[in-house]
Amino acid sequence: MTTTAQFREAVDRGTVRALADQFDEPDWMVQKRLEALEAVEALDFPPVIQTPGRKWTDLESLDFEALVDPLSQPAESQRSGGDAVEVLSMDAALERLPALVQEYYGSVIDTLDNRLIALATALRSGGTVIHVPEGVDAGTVKIETAMEGRSRLGYTLVVAEPNSSVTVADRRSSSDEVEDSRYYGGVTEVVAEENATVNYGSLQEFDDHTYAYTKSQGTADTYATVNWLEGNLGSQLRKSEIGTTLAGDGSETKTVGAFFGREDQHFDLDARVWHRGEHTTADLVTRGVVDDQARSVYEGTQDVGQDAWDTSSYQRENTLMLSDRSEADASPKLIINNHDTEASHSATVGQVNHRDLFYMTSSGVPEETARNMLVEGFFVPVLEEMDVEALRNDFEVGVTERLDT
After folding, report:
1. What is the domain range of residue 150?
2. Taking a C-beta distance cutoff of 8 angstroms, is the pair 166, 135 a contact?
3. Among residues 54, 19, 22, which one has the least CA distance to residue 37?
4. Is 97 part of a structural domain of the chain?
5. For 367-385, what is each residue's pLDDT tens digit?
6. Residue 336, domain member (yes or no)
7. Is residue 219 part of a domain?
8. CA 288 from chain center: how many Å?
9. How many domains does the chain have?
10. How far is the C-alpha of 235 from the C-alpha of 213, rounded, in Å?
11. How far apart are CA 88 and CA 215, in angstroms?
12. In what order do the strands lie in the sheet with 237-246?
């Protein structure tokens, strides 16, 4: 595989400018790209859980730069929304909403946050901007991206003005036509202004050759709500970071995650909330299944700031192992700097209940059917939390397909 030095020879400032020219980007954004390119090698990879003698997810051994083909990132993205909301490609947004893009681009996630964010910033191909005007209930906005080539580096920005609301259903997939390893990198920034509500749902169904890293982060103003739903079914290695800063008083967030890993898939999922305003509420809920030699790693962090009075923060993570060869680890954390807090966290890892399985088989249910029914039942609590109906239905179908193969 190509070394980093070879990557630097192949990708230079001219490459970045050629990408920017494709989308007729303004000087300030070109400079963002160039700054990120220069910083890539000096930045650390995204943080992963480590214990003495072991790093739970090894990102450094993967040469992400070699997986990226900067000037050839074929992907078909389809976008749809109602008349009251603007759903634009990045180049269209820079033409129609230049001030908004400049104000909010990189405002939630630092473009130099880590090595992979900088890589995505420098070599990003297009993107999507969703703008919900004040007082508008935009309904559901759909984004569908089918990756066809070796790489895709995407970006999504959602800005919901005061007293507005929107639900985003974001589907990501890839074809099986490319047999070599490939890479998907994505950044999603959500800004919910006063009393606005953003529900952002994503479902990834990449093929087994894809390595994927995404960071999704939002900020909620006074009485605003940012909710996340993430379903993970595909990819070879999946590293995901989701977080919300509850900046305004009375703001809320809910993160619902579900995954099903099989064969030798590896999922590393990170959920965080930063309580900074008063009277804020958070609920982090994740459920997943690992089979065969699949592995899951989960880290959840509830960070309560010194001025975050009257905080309510809850976290639950449950993983079901269907194989003795599968692995699952969870590391929930509480960081509390204000005593006026009600918070809890829990994590469980286990196998199919043998008593339930015995009861069902002794009642005449075939063992495989009984096991599948128990797995489907295991997902019910988290499926009930999924507010994006279309993605919930698709995730259920994906689970059924995995159980039937």
Report:
1. 4-273+353-404
2. no
3. 19
4. yes
5. 888 888 989 999 999 888 8
6. no
7. yes
8. 15
9. 1
10. 10
11. 21
12. 86-89, 128-132, 151-160, 182-192, 210-220, 237-246, 266-275, 295-304, 327-336
* Per-residue pLDDT tens digits for 112-142: 999 999 999 999 987 999 999 999 999 999 9
The pTM of this model reads 0.93
Residue type (1 letter), 78: Q
Cα torsion angle, 391, 185, 236, 71, sign: positive
Dist. CA 338–CA 340, nearest whole Å? 6
Asked if 44 and 60 count as a contact pair (C-beta separation under 8 A), the reply is no
Q: Which two tokens stand for residue 377?
A: 């039942």
Residue 166 lies in a domain: yes
Six token digits for residue 318: 């449950």
